[in-house]
UniProtKB/TrEMBL annotation:
<dbReference type="InterPro" id="IPR016516">
    <property type="entry name" value="UCP07580"/>
</dbReference>
<keyword id="KW-0378">Hydrolase</keyword>
<dbReference type="Pfam" id="PF10118">
    <property type="entry name" value="Metal_hydrol"/>
</dbReference>
<protein>
    <submittedName>
        <fullName>Metal-dependent hydrolase</fullName>
    </submittedName>
</protein>
<dbReference type="GO" id="GO:0016787">
    <property type="term" value="F:hydrolase activity"/>
</dbReference>
Amino acid sequence: MTAVHANRSTPETDPGEVELHARNVEFDLSGTPLHWIPDAPVSSNMITVLNLLLPEGERWFVETFNEALPMIKDDKLATAMRGFVGQEAMHAEVHDKAVENWLSRHGVDATGYLEQMEWIFRKVLGPREGQTPEQDLKHLIERLWLIAAIEHYTALLGDFALNCTWTENGADKNMADMFVWHGAEEVEHRAVAHDAAAYFGDTPIRRGRAMALAMPFLAILLVRGFRFINSQDPLYDDMSVPAKYTKYVKDYFVESRRGLFPKIGGLVWATATYFKPGFHPNDIGDTAQAVAYLASSPGARRAG
């Protein structure tokens, strides 16, 4: 994987609006170690949690957008939403394969966590039965705003992946490529969920309510997934609980300073930008940088 740090756009390279589309990709994780970033078990395992968390979430995105699409009369927005749906469906498929063909080979049985994600996204956050049409529309709009709030974080994480130091620190090229490819597409389509929700009305109350749920919701699921993977990671087998948590905290600070993992304080601070007057998701990341990576991604080129 080549470095992409230099691909920030200039007036000469800015691609302007891009048409969103799903890309066929293929990532060979047959030789990828569990700790795919050398000497960084905390960052490796925490980022690996995304393989468990994302598939059901992304399928929920797809189903919610497909529910909303017949109501969208703006052709440009509808086209972007269809491109978003295609990309998210591919993300879910890729991360499912990573769990089946990679995590299981390292002895991590993800069944319990995956069943929890299925229950949350299909039962708790899915459509509700027995409601009036007005109640159905209200619930749909609430789900769209929740997706927009979640996509605020996926855009931030996508921008991080495009500019992190995984490659410089010897990360497994195929796993790094998979996450940077995904991150680049998150940057590429970062405005779609917000624009889809705003189509039905943008108010501070709707934004605030969605973000108040999204931030703790994602934090809890990520921490739960991290503990789930670590419970099956041989590195921690002989450690006491205090020793484990001491190592987690120490490693987090060391690894985040090395640019291997996002700084939590930065993510929390970035939450506030969602409420700035005039904020739009296009303020996050760089389309030219994302498109440049997507054109050069080994996984995309291999499948193409």
